Amino acid sequence: MSTSIQIYRARSEPADAWVAWDGDESKDYAYGGCRLVGWRDRMEDVVGVLCSLMHTESAYKNVLINEALRAGAVDDLATALPPGFRDSTVGGGRCVIRPADARYAEILSHPEHPEFRSTVHQVFAALGDLLNEREGRIKLTPDFGKYAGVADLLHEHTPHVLGVHCDAGGCGGKSSYSATGVTAAHHVLADEGVIDAPRTTLIGSAGAMGEDVLTYLQDQGGELAVCDLKYDAGHEAAPDDVRLLPSVSGRFTDEALASGGTVIATTWGNELEHSNLTALAPGTVLLLAHNLAIPSGAGGKELMAEVARADVLALPGQLLTLGGALTSRLEWFSRQSGTTVFDKPLAHRVVSRVVGDWTRRMARPADGHGNAYEALLDVCEAA
Q: pTM for this one?
């Protein structure tokens, strides 16, 4: 993937925002999410995080979407799709926001704070001006923190924001679309005979995406085990009809990895590299449903090569959770066509088609190395 990254800065009293895009003007636009970073973070570290996320998360996902659309993954839905969507190409974009001090960091991290709205509006006024000056080349979803409606606040300052409320023509919160990607991959792998054991372990089953995946798995039947830090802390009760496994912060437990069958992780990311990979049972299908599940660079390649040597098929988060980026694209072209109420059922069908298409390809990589992560890198870096 050859790009000329361009970076812009939007300054405000509460926080500065840095926005990056891949500089590819042949694309319709560049797209990515936002993230809060620490108020003490050095500028070089902020820019490093920004460029890494733009490349290995946003750009990779959009490459996969671009290629799937080009290959006809959603052609059977053509009559229901908005004009321009099937032929669209989108590049990688990203935004990170660094609060000015500890006080503003506390406010921006807690949407229930009485000063949140007034503070974030100051940040978004500057960010909106930046996006407007770029004339639509960059679009963002401000999905940082825990506030589902934050995209609507940025929408007051710019039209170049995605993930707005469904009644305003937007796709709304993205967790359910990401969950659809995970369940679509599971369904395809079962149909293809790659998943043939009726045993599944779901790590992170009490989270927003985990709850949706749990509902799907319970409907499928079979032997199901779950684990989540919320269960161990007593914050939530595990379902009565499943087996409960222990969980720990920062890694996957040996009990979860040794379960065999299919292991699905809908967690915070970074756990796999700190886990005991020798606990993985040969033949396991491992669905890593987080963008940060695999470290970038050589470390990620080595980690996934080790997993593949254990005869484990592992699908990476960029594939499984591209539903948010894909649905945001559908939102933009729907809004451009004059749609005022977003078609959520259609969006879930689109996500299922695209993730299913790539799951079939990566389950048995054509180049023979048997490593789905390497296959993903081959596709994304060649684009």
A: 0.95
Contacts 24+ apart (CB under 8 A), 340-344: 340/167, 340/168, 340/169, 341/166, 341/167, 341/169, 342/166, 342/169, 342/170, 342/171, 342/172, 343/80, 344/166, 344/171, 344/172
Q: Are 29 and 290 in contact (CB under 8 A)?
A: no
**Is 221 a domain residue?**
yes
In the block, residue with structure tokens 């649905």: 327
Q: Which of 138, 161, 184 is the last residue of a domain?
A: 161
Q: How many domains does the chain have?
A: 2
Instruction: Tell the residue number behind the tokens 């005869």, with chain if given.
Output: 311
Q: What is the pLDDT of residues 266-304, one digit of tens each?
A: 998 899 999 999 999 999 999 999 888 999 889 999 999
Residues 6+ apart with CB under 8 A from 345: none
Q: Which residues contact 42 (CB under 8 A, 6 or more apart)?
A: none
